[in-house]
Write a structure and sequence with these properties.
By secondary structure, the protein is of the alpha/beta class. It has helices at residues 2-5, 26-33, 43-49, 57-71, 75-86, 120-128, 204-212, 219-227, and strands at residues 14-15, 38-39, 91-94, 97-100, 133-136, 143-146, 151-152, 160-162, 168-171, 185-190, 194-200. It starts with a helix and ends with a helix.
């Protein structure tokens, strides 16, 4: 993904959280993400810092293993990673654009699923709190929510969406664990006029093998990568 970004004339790189919590290389992921211009705290990052309350048993085991990985190794680098995580903001406002992990109403934990377009009160409340655009993740399902109560999958809009004057919520998808049926990494390019969804293949089987090799990580965390679910 980062190699793909280098070909796109990008000025800044933002990460919307969940750097760690499911994968086999938490230390390396934190080291790499520290090079981004902005990173938002995700609920799994929060779980590693404190208690993974509300997580499934498999996710909880993964969190505790991740914590052990961050506490081992060189003391100075380990402390630096903990300090980095603990200082991550829960949201970032830039002009009329908001960047969160979950939602405008609950930046850390609220899910906004595609099917929420049928929950009119929820969608209307979320849009009432947005100035113009909100970029979010958390569900791992990329797409665009509109003020008209619609959700567009990237493949329904040819991977491009022009903003116009209306407000929009943009789910940027997931780099490491997509859940929209496409196992490729997903990220977005954006400027003031439009957003573009990009998919990048990566060596799934290598990552899956690493997960299988860690007893504390449920094999399901590897298996789901093949299906993008």
């Amino acid at each position: 993904m980062l190699a793909d970004i280098e070909t796109q004339n990008v000025d800044q790189i933002y990460c919307l959280g969940d750097i760690i919590g499911y994968g086999p290389n938490p230390r390396e992921c934190i080291d790499r993400v520290q090079q981004c211009d902005l990173c938002i705290l995700g609920n799994h990052d929060q779980g590693a810092l404190f208690d993974p309350e509300g997580f499934s048993s498999g996710a909880e085991r993964a969190i505790f293993w991740t914590r052990d990985q961050l506490e081992s190794g060189e003391d100075e680098r380990a402390i630096g990673r903990w300090n980095y995580l603990s200082e991550l903001p829960r949201s970032q406002m830039e002009g009329d654009d908001l960047f969160v992990h979950g939602s405008v109403r609950n930046p850390l934990n609220e899910y906004v699923f595609p099917e929420d377009v049928y929950n009119t009160r929820k969608i209307e409340k979320l849009f009432s709190l947005i100035r113009r655009r909100c970029f979010q993740g958390h569900t791992h399902v990329p797409g665009i929510f509109t003020m008209q109560g619609l959700f567009y999958r990237p493949d329904e809009i040819n991977d491009h969406f022009e903003f116009g004057d209306d407000k929009a919520m943009i789910n940027v998808g997931s780099v490491g664990q997509p859940r929209d049926g496409d196992p490729r990494s997903c990220y977005v390019l954006m400027n003031d006029e439009m957003v573009e969804f990009r998919r990048v293949a990566y060596p799934l089987e290598k990552t899956i093998e690493k997960i299988y090799d860690v007893g504390e990580l449920d094999n399901f965390l590897g298996d789901r990568l093949r299906e993008g679910r």
